[in-house]
Design a protein that fits this description.
4-stranded antiparallel beta sheet, alpha+beta
């Protein structure tokens, strides 16, 4: 009799444990889709995936764009980009043009920093950089999409030429082009600041360090000077002077131009 009572007790305990496990699994499955259930999603995302997706959307997708998200196919690529079956989403994007990327062929070519970065799809390539705390997209006109690649996020190249952000570096030699840092670059013919040539800079001795940009003849302090008008000019400072010596002063004869 005692053995029979023990058997009954063990059976009851097993039944209780089985019911608890089944209930826990059902609850977990419901929790995994709860966040996006309102938009019709019935995919079995894990809870952590759902939370990560929702956090990215809340932080990076603006206004009415949220209502168009296909939550079943939504996927975060990195901090700057996400896709669903219909669209590419750019973090904190200001719609400064009508570029729409194809999510099936979209590629992130470089990390997007405050200075810039590159993306492309089967139809177009673009430079993306910060503007007023948001990401702005700039189409690259005339680029060879198939061969275009990022060099360092600031400079890029295709089979024909080098680029600074979205701007082609006119007549640059793409085979010899290399970035030097701080928006400077060079090829076998010229030194460049951004997309502009620095005429007279010595190719053999030109160096870019943290504190100085110089060749054997001059010390350079180039920068985009907006007070000259809508077209950016670039000025090289005289040896021994710094940028602060030139604040508010309109440069006379820019040494950097196309």
């Amino acid at each position: 009799m005692k053995k029979r009572d023990n058997y009954v007790l063990i059976t009851i305990i097993i039944a209780i444990l089985t019911a608890s496990v089944v209930g826990w699994m059902f609850t977990k499955k419901n929790m995994s889709v709860e966040l996006l259930e309102s938009s019709g999603n019935t995919s079995e995302l894990t809870q952590s995936e759902s939370l990560a997706n929702q956090a990215w959307i809340n932080k990076n997708v603006l206004g009415a764009e949220k209502s168009g998200i296909d939550s079943k196919t939504f996927k975060v690529i990195n901090e700057q980009f996400a896709i669903d079956a219909k669209k590419v989403y750019i973090a904190r994007y200001i719609d400064n043009n009508e570029m729409k990327f194809d999510p099936q062929t979209f590629e992130v070519l470089s990390d997007i920093s405050n200075s810039g970065g590159y993306v492309k799809d089967k139809n177009q390539a673009a430079s993306i950089h910060m503007s007023g705390g948001a990401n702005a997209v700039y189409e690259m006109v005339g680029v060879d999409i198939e061969t275009f690649e990022s060099i360092d996020g600031i400079f890029g190249k295709d089979i024909n030429r080098a680029y600074f952000l979205e701007k082609p570096i006119v007549n640059s030699d793409v085979k010899s082009f290399e970035p030097l840092g701080n928006h400077y670059g060079k090829d076998r013919n010229f030194i460049y600041f951004g997309d502009k040539k620095i005429h007279g800079a010595d190719l053999k001795t030109f160096t870019v360090d943290i504190d100085s940009v110089r060749d054997e003849n001059n010390s350079y302090r180039c920068f985009y000077e907006s007070i000259c008008g809508t077209a950016c000019h670039i000025t090289a400072f005289e040896t021994g002077k710094t940028r602060s010596d030139y604040f508010g002063i309109k440069p006379t004869e820019p040494v950097c131009n196309q």
